[in-house]
TrEMBL record:
InterPro entries per the UniProt record, alphabetical: 6-PGluconate_DH-like_C_sf, 6PGD_dom2, 6PGDH_C, 6PGDH_Gnd/GntZ, 6PGDH_NADP-bd, 6PGdom_BS, NAD(P)-bd_dom_sf, Pgluconate_DH
Quaternary assembly: Homodimer.
SUPFAM superfamilies in UniProt: 6-phosphogluconate dehydrogenase C-terminal domain-like, NAD(P)-binding Rossmann-fold domains
Protein name: 6-phosphogluconate dehydrogenase, decarboxylating
Provenance organism: Celeribacter marinus
Reactions catalysed, as given in the entry: 6-phospho-D-gluconate + NADP(+) = D-ribulose 5-phosphate + CO2 + NADPH
GO molecular function: NADP binding; phosphogluconate dehydrogenase (decarboxylating) activity
Length: 478
């Protein structure tokens, strides 16, 4: 085989499928896996694509089989990236590039990019979404790092990516960690979306005692409307699946402890350090963390078994739930986009926010019918960087917020937790209230800490008339 344009290290689920995708698009690809037998088995089972795959059993051989400047994708377990870079580096020449296509904390990406630059090597931090199927047939690709290097492999990335109306869902978002940050926020939104769908499931299952398969059918129906999305589609399928062993709905046989690899948590952590609070994403992270406390929750259920639903809970119609879910989901995207804007400013990335929404329209886990409209709204310019203020979304939120309000109120009265919905509503109500209640908090801060406040009629650095009260409080505590 002629020399390959690109190499790939790590033939796990994602790496194997990405290699097949690259080969399937006509690009010869050199592949390497730490465990050599995996490489051989992979190539042997790749059928017609084998002639596009060049197996290497050492990193030296992998590098030797590539055209220059060399481009090597690393797709290994997150904790192994630095070790693989250290092993690979001595075989590369100045101007070559390493592409980390796994999920990485963007701070690590920034660190790796800076370190490799010192060695004359280029680094691309590249988020890939879409799971196994996406990797094989078209993922959404969010790259960051050296733009000149990206241009060298742009044709490959665009060819293997998902397409929305023929437009590739692959882009370069900015220097160093920009791509991995966009992927992290994508995952944060994914967390919020999944949590909200699960909250609807909880309201229908525990509030209305609806059979599981019926809820699945409802999601299937919603998938034909404005909620059309990959996550609604698969939720409908998961809820209608039957356990072969017991004949029960499969979901009843799944322990309600959610896993998380960290990207949702990273989103929340980074947001907080940027002075942001994407409360729907935070609620989703909290929901997963709380879910892991299964034994505690079971103990709590026994202790508080006497607490009954309160009177006054409205019966929720399916239409209300659908509208509430749509509104809450838009709010989650609003928070994600705002976070991207804040990070872009902090790290001088100059992120194209519309392009973020555009590459999410196909191939990735959060793909949905809404994203096309969102991308257009962002392209047109968001008032105050708020998606919910964009005219086409303001109208949906205006209508959906009353349904969201009924859902949150009903859930509270029935004692059913809806952290993401509740946080979506609180955020919306806060963002539509010109005068909030932080005037009191500023007063409190000035009272106990002389932090000063800004006056509504102008001027910063003012203090309240409580100096003698403060002295009195101090005397009481002495
Ligand atoms: P994974 O289980 O995270 O990684 C498996 C691969 O890593 C194997 O090829 C393994 O080689 C290699 N590896 C592990 N430790 C190594 C080390 N110390 N040195 C060299 N190679 C090492 O597989 P994955 O699910 O395909 O994920 C890869 C990356 O993609 C991760 O960052 C993941 O978070 C990200 N990602 C995954 C998904 C998904 O749906 N799975 C979606 C998006 C992104 P051996 O065969 O020798 O063990």
């Amino acid at each position: 085989m002629s020399q390959a344009r690109i190499g790939l290290i790590g033939l796990g689920v994602m790496g194997a499928n990405l290699s097949l995708n690259i080969a399937d698009n006509g690009f010869p690809v050199a592949v390497y896996n730490r465990t050599s037998s995996v490489t051989d088995e992979f190539v042997a089972s790749s059928g017609d694509l084998a002639d596009k795959l060049s197996p290497a059993h050492t990193l030296e051989a992998l590098v030797a089989s590539l055209t220059t400047p060399r481009a090597v994708i690393i797709m290994v377990a997150a904790g192994a990236v630095d070790a693989v870079i250290d092993e690979l580096k001595p075989h590369l020449d100045k101007g070559d590039m390493i592409i980390d296509a796994g999920n990485a904390n963007f701070h690590d990406t920034r660190r790796r990019e800076a370190a490799l630059k010192n060695d004359g090597l280029n680094f691309i931090g590249m988020g890939v979404s879409g799971g196994e199927e996406g990797a094989r047939f078209g993922p959404s690709i969010m790259a960051g790092g050296d733009i000149a290097s990206f241009e060298v492999i742009r044709d490959i990335l665009e060819a293997i990516s998902a397409k929305h109306n023929g437009q590739p869902c692959a882009d370069h978002f900015g220097p160093d960690g920009a791509g991995h940050f966009v992927k992290t926020v994508h995952n944060g939104i994914e967390y919020a979306d999944m949590q909200m769908i699960a909250e609807v499931y909880g309201l229908l299952r525990d509030g209305d005692k609806r059979p599981t398969a019926e809820i699945g059918k409802l999601f299937e129906a919603w998938d034909q409307g404005p909620l059309n999305s990959y996550l609604i589609e698969i939720s409908g399928k998961v809820l209608q699946a039957v356990d072969e062993k017991t004949g029960n709905p499969l979901v009843d046989m799944i322990v309600d402890k959610a896993g998380q690899k960290g990207t949702g948590r990273w989103t929340a952590i980074e947001a907080l350090s940027l002075g942001q609070s994407p409360s729907t994403i935070e609620a989703a992270v909290a929901g997963r963390s709380w879910s892991s406390e299964k034994e505690t929750r079971e103990a709590g259920e026994a202790i508080f078994a006497d607490i009954q639903p309160q009177a006054g809970a409205e019966t929720l119609s399916d239409a209300d739930l659908e509208k509430a879910l749509l509104a809450a989901k838009i709010i989650a995207y609003d928070q994600g986009i705002k976070l991207l804007a804040a990070a872009s400013e902090e790290y001088k990335w100059d992120l194209d926010l519309a392009s973020c929404a555009e590459v999410w329209r196909a191939g990735c886990i959060i793909r949905s019918a809404l994203l096309d409209d969102m991308a257009s709204a962002v392209r047109e310019g968001l008032p105050h960087t708020q998606l919910i203020f964009a005219p086409r979304f303001a109208q949906i939120i205006r209508e959906g917020s009353s349904a969201l309000r009924r859902v949150v109120a009903s859930a509270a009265l029935r004692g059913l937790p809806t952290p993401a919905f509740s946080n979506a509503l609180a955020y919306f109500d806060t963002m539509r209230m010109g005068r909030g209640t932080t005037d009191l908090i500023q007063g409190q801060r000035d009272f106990f800490g002389a932090h000063s406040f800004e006056r509504t009629d102008g001027g910063k650095g003012h203090h309240g008339p409580w100096a003698s009260d403060v002295a009195h409080s101090a005397a009481l505590t002495d």
